Amino acid sequence: xxxxxxxxxxxxxxxxxxxxxxxxxxxxxxxxxxxxxxxxxxxxxxxxxxxxxxxxxxxxxxxxxxxxxxxxxxxxxxxxxxxxxxxxxxxxxxxxxxxxxxxxxxxxxxxxxxxxxxxxxxxxxxxxxxxxxxxxxxxxxxxxxxxxxxxxxxxxxxxxxxxxxxxxxxxxxxxxxxxxxxxxxxxxxxxxxxxxxxxxxxxxxxxxxxxxxxxxxxxxxxxxxxxxxxxxxxxxxxxxxxxxxxxxxxxxxxxxxxxxxxxxxxxxxxxxxxxxxxxxxxxxxxxxxxxxxxxxxxxxxxxxxxxxxxxxxxxxxxxxxxxxxxxxxxxxxxxxxxxxxxxxxxxxxxxxxxxxxxxxxxxxxxxxxxxxxxxxxxxxxxxxxxxxxxxxxxxxxxxxxxxxxxxxxxxxxxxxxxxxxxxxxxxxxxxxxxxxxxxxxxxxxxxxxxxxxxxxxxxxxxxxxxxxxxxxxxxxxxxxxxxxxxxxxxxxxxxxxxxxxxxxxxxxxxxxxxxxxxxxxxxxxxxxxxxxxxxxxxxxxxxxxxxxxxxxxxxxxxxxxxxxxxxxxxxxxxxxxxxxxxxxxxxxxxxxxxxxxxxxxxxxxxxxxxxxxxxxxxxxxxxxxxxxxxxxxxxxxxxxxxxxxxxxxxxxxxxxxxxxxxxxxxxxxxxxxxxxxxxxxxxxxxxxxxxxxxxxxxxxxxxxxxxxxxxxxxxxxxxxxxxxxxxxxxxxxxxxxx
Length: 738
What we know:
seven-stranded parallel beta sheet, globular, 5 domains, Rossmann fold
């Protein structure tokens, strides 16, 4: 296989090692995809392994598609193997074996928008305060439970029966009941239920163990406990598992990623071979050296250092702005200056820690008429008209989906009000049938007003006709039929407004989406199409061909690269955030995020901070980020990074964080004190305090709020003490700069 000689020695070593467990530590930009695809091609063409016996899993459709295309280019033609995302692989298992868990094979997949709508209804039914108990809060807890394989009863047993856990238990129970009734699973269910199938049916597990004799896992550092269990169960029979990842890029622990999976791989799989890919093909030497000077401060990491044969390149640029508006002005000015005829606006990316930072950059770019795109805003598939039509198509696939029916029962307007819907829901609940079944009862429909009765009969007729014959229709035919026969298209056309025209354009674009899928799969069935759009990840929403500056969070940028990258907001409290200082693991994850952001840059990297920043309605003086102070200063041009020596009037250096003295979150305020104006003392209700607020206590003095619970507020005071105080009792007042 001559293509192997295109690889460097370490990549080739990994590609040729096919028997037994293998850990490939692949640094940023080190050619891991090329290594994986050549390894798959080598297994097929040189080792004679059937594509049927290979499973490769990753996290995004984009990554899976790129890997699939590269393998097909290497061996010629289609390969028929499973190169899929984790969710898509689990979904295939469940399509065949969901009956073991009490689901019909045509179950639907609820995306985050569907989940939120479902939980919103549950919160309403439970008569809860939706400001205190938000749908997002419940869904976050439920997701965490499912990652730990805890059902509602096990959750209650694990966390005890107090008032709050009982409410969560009730909401979790109601949510699971709703999913089962609607024959639906959420994203977490896809992973959890696939593992349940393997645990429940030994024959099913053996079937997939025998099939997938060679398993490859991309981005292994991002796997959670359930994903780890899924691949470990599959690999137990033959142990031919190859995992590829970089512990320095584990940035999703907040949503379940367990860095121990990659750090302890050699303990889980004895005699595992380890190959390090340290040659970087993306960034200049200065960018790599600067990134290493930061990440080297982490304790929990495998020893490695990226290098490149490329030239040193420009030093990093640093700008200390007066405020966030000056920071945005500087970034826009730099983009304007560097944009030349041979450069596109899409070569530039602004990567920030929080979405709230985007506004000033949007304003500054607009002022210079620089096109930009915010990735992470409203996804195309989350727009109302697109969600409406997807709900119609979900009903065709699965008429028992009450959530989908609730969305479109009066779209377009059919004269069905909230009271009518409530009566129909009660009827369906009493009879223990789906809402759609209730609408098929002629006596029920005849009792409704004439317009509503006619509209419902028309709608249910369309759904039934396509549902019964869905296997005989192309997806595009079903889509066109729904638009016309339900009156949805006509209703928009009759509005004759710019907004309606825009919605019609979005619906026509959705038709293009369907045609694109049908071109790639002539036998595309409706369930297959619905699965593909349900599993789209945010990074799959990035269009590299759109000529616009990209604005996105550093979390969203993982897996992408740009010639020119700006990292704004390099300040303690913002990046890293204050909460990161509560525990060493938190700061290490923030440092990994900084490393990921820096290594997105291929040619030039800018770092910026603001002396004064207004964020979330608060204006504060800032201290430059700890990560700036960790940088090798020989690699940075521009403003000087302030590092004061220890004294009675200055802040102690944070460079010793990993050393003998732990960091005190209030240290930065000692530095601020030297520059601050007089502070005004104002009495503010304790429950209004938020982390980061400056406060004063008559006994302990000035401090900063670190955490606010239901009954306790935690404050780091200037004297170095850390107090937990009772809300509503402790005499705290806030200090606010004029």
